[in-house]
């Protein structure tokens, strides 16, 4: 059995009513071009809402993680297509369960 450690770091920046987050996944993969994947997210506070920075942090971070998940899924999907060939439009995506 092989253990792997992947690390996700989230960097959050606040600027007035805007909060931005970057979620960076670092893997232990052998190829240098696939060792990091970055997702980004943004939150904007409505001026009529009370200023509670934690909510903006949570929204921006969750959106960055969602973007990261989509990017990681796309990478895996591309890897599957590369191994199995083009997807037959009649049977759906190669990575979907029946």
Descriptive report:
- The chain is elongated, with a radius of gyration of 18 Å.
- The chain is α+β, with helices and mostly antiparallel strands.
- It has a single domain, classed as Double Stranded RNA Binding Domain.
- A three-stranded antiparallel sheet has the order 1-2-3.
- The protein is built from one helix and three strands; from the N terminus they run βββα.
Compact summary:
The protein has one helix and three strands, in the order βββα.
What's the helix and strand layout?
Layout (H helix, E strand, L loop, with lengths): L6 E9 L2 E9 L9 E9 L8 H32 L14
Antiparallel strand pairs: 1-2, 2-3
Total E-strand runs: 3
How do the helices and strands follow one another from N- to C-terminus? EEEH
- Cα-atom radius of gyration: 18 Å
CATH class: Alpha Beta
Roughly how much helix do the residues carry, as a percent range? 25-40%
Strand order of the largest sheet: 1-2-3
Low-confidence stretches: none
The biggest sheet, with number of strands, parallel, antiparallel or mixed sense and barrel status, is:
3 strands, antiparallel
Q: What's the architecture in CATH terms?
A: 2-Layer Sandwich
Structural class: alpha+beta
What gross morphology would you assign?
Answer: elongated
Quickly count the domains: 1
Round the mean pLDDT to the nearest integer and report it.
86
Beta-strand percentage? 25-35%
CATH superfamily: Rv1738
